[in-house]
Please model this.
Amino acid sequence: MKRIALSMLLALFVAGLFAQKQEPYQFKDIKRLAATEVKNQDKTGTCWAFSTASMLESEALRLGKGTTDLSEMFIVRHIYRQKCENYVRRQGTAQFGEGGLAHDVFHVAKQHGIVPESAYPGRKNPNKPRDHSQLEKDLKSMCDDFVAKGKAGKLSADWLAKIDSVLDVEFGKVPLQFEVGSTMFTPASYRDFLDIKPEDYVNITSFTHHPFYEKFILEVPDNWANGMYYNLPINDMMRSLNYALQQGYSVAWDADVSNMGFSSANGIAIVPQKEWAELSLAERQNAFKTWEPEKTITQEYRQELFDRQVTVDDHLMHIVGRLDEAHGGDFYAVKNSWGEVSDLKGYLNVSEAYMRLNTIAFTLHKNALPADIQRRLGIQPDVPKPTGPTMRPSKTTPTNEKPSDSQVSPAKIQPRVNTVQPKTAPNKNVSDN
Model:
């Protein structure tokens, strides 16, 4: 009789586990930040521009600047030019392609400013999806020719102007001024009007092949500009993400989405406890619909998959919220740039395990980091602006001298300009998807 009772208890326990496994995911918002509409990068490798521009649009909302629609192609056009120059000057040995990283956007914003989509759509045919595949081939061919001519001592002095000509055909000429509402802006004054300070944004990552709490150049192909990343232990990296969201800062996310746990069609990304290779087709399909336990992701396992190039840098998105899943704990609300796919209309729910394992890096405002991590990294937080009355500053600009773009406030710009000559040769250099 006792044996029968034990058998029945075991059967009930197994049935309970099976029933639990068959329960659908149940999500509840912990923190959801304001974000602009989902866009579509179409047939381009420019997710880095779309994700980071989306973060800047959320930053504008956070800063009380209202809803903005920034031009990703303004950024992309400048980066193509810089990539071309970098490739030729490095004699054809540099990375060249459509991809990039979040810090590329901040480099352009610092050097050239930012503009709204209305001022620079950046597409040759607005009735067709964007497709940069032929542009990439044409630019690469041009640059290879320039490299060969340079090595032969025959490179003409106008080689950068030729690159500009190709970019102007594809994207259009870059505007010097544009109107938003009833105010005229330059790209630099629009950046300043939105209160976007590129130097205030930092990149963080977590790998053991470099010392923690120091900066290093992240070794991924799309880091063609040699951007620097702060290296944190995995728990501090995740703590920084959670703290940022709780404080109202969204985050640009560089990640691996090429593994089997990522499903844009189902709007979810997970790391099942059982290996994908061991799952049947039915189990794989069911994994995105009903809850099951996930792997525990350690620092060592994360590093192992990165070193084996299982985890690679292949997509950037925008983290806008933190979720509670009834069975499995923390998930994150992530805005993608592939259009309004899945029932979540272009968003995904990403598990904490997936975030720990597949994050290449986060980019966020320095004030979004916990205070102890800021101190450990030597980051100086912004000092709050005084709210009381202040003395009027003395006038330092001579009356016969024009202020620079960064000094021009929107209120000082004339309300209308009838003709604006476009900039034909943007400034150069430095520093996918």
About this structure: The longest strand covers residues 315-325. Residues 2-21 form the longest helix (20 residues). Confidence is low (pLDDT under 50) at residues 1-8, 10-20, 387-432. The radius of gyration is 25 Å.
